[in-house]
Every structure is written in C-alpha cells, then in structure tokens.
Amino acid sequence: MKSIFNKKAEEIDFGNLPRHIAIIMDGNGRWAKKRKMPRTAGHAVGAETFRKVATYCKNIGLDYLTVYAFSTENWKRPQEEVDAIMGLLEKYLLESIEKMERDKVKMKFFGDVSVLSPRLRELIARTEEISKRFEGCQVNICLNYGGRDELVRAMRRYAREVSEGRENNIEEEDVGSYLFSAGIPDPDLLIRPGGEYRLSNFLMWQSAYSELYFTDKLWPDFDEKEINRAIAEFQRRERRYGGV
Hints:
Undecaprenyl pyrophosphate synthetase; six-stranded parallel sheet
C-alpha cells in the first residue's frame, strides 16, 4: 500500500508517515449534547472511535499513538461522568486483554494510576505485562495525566537523586528520562479535534516541536479519513526545528 486518497483527493505517502501521533480526544460531551443524549453516551461512542483509530494507526504502520484519555483536571467533572469514563476504561481493558494475542497492539499508560481503583490498576498492570511480548505499534494512554504534573514529578525524582549523591549537570535528554514517556520519541504530529485551539496541559515538554493540527470535527465523528487529512497536512509542512 503506497498511497491513499481522502475526500479531498489528498495523497498520503505511507513511506513518509510521522513516527508518533498524539491525539487530544475532545468533544464527546458536546457530541452527545447536540443529539440530546447524556454526556456519558458521547464517551461510549468516543471509546469505540478510539478503538477504530488505534487499529487504523497500527494497520498503516505507525510506531506510536498517544491519546489523552483522562486528565488530572477531569476529576472536577460530575461524579456520574467520571464513573462512566472509568467503567468504559475497565470494559475496554477487559476486551483488549482477550484480543491482545490476536491484535498484538502494545499498550502503556502515562500518568498517576495509583489513585485509580484496585481493579483498574490490576487490569493496567496485566495489559502492560502482556504488551512486553509484542513488537510494532505502541498505544500510550494518558490517564490521570497532566503535563505540568508530569514535570513536577520529574523534578521531584531528580531532587531525590541529588539528595542521594547522584547530582549531575542536567541536560534536555536527562529531563526526558524522568518523564512518563522516557525512551519514546516525541510526537511528530499532535491532533486536536473538537474545535478548541490549545494543548490543555497535554505533553507539554514532548510537544515542543510537534506539528499541531486542529479540526472542528468532534471526537466521536473522527475516523480514518480525518487521520488521513491530518497526515496529509503534516506531510506538506517543512520541519526546521528553529533552523533555516
């Protein structure tokens, strides 16, 4: 498979894909509200959209996909909505564990999962353990994650090492080694559906040179064609990293 066309006849070069795509999965609640449905219904459809998009990214040969599933600020939402999101996550993990040997999609979790229920922590641990056997596409799920919180945790870890007599002249690569994403390349392309134009505390360090792509399409309506549009736009850009 060398190329594919979306509705706008934009050619996708599968030999020049971004290595790592990050997505802020935004718009579930507004999608449901437009249809006079509870917000929880939007999250259910959004979870299925995530499954389809992750499968598509694996099938086209993407190395990494990182998604923003639940932020450190999302605990402020109504308890019913939080409970629904956690229930959907448990359901997704149970189904994924059953299919992992077939699909061979690696999964890793970024964020402080220590505050989650024992059942969810157990499923996360099982998922990551099974994932160690697989090669290929890795899906990183940011759960109870915040970019600023991640940096604070990194500084705390570094401070502990200094106090233990392992002080060093810290460089950029040293900071990266303290993050949840240690060892994973930074996102080449960061996609935000939903019509908002901000990062919302997502991968603040890692996205320093990511190409940003915004769209009004709400996350439950996102599909393979939208991924193609974002990749096509990415492939039209020239990445100079501050150079000429």
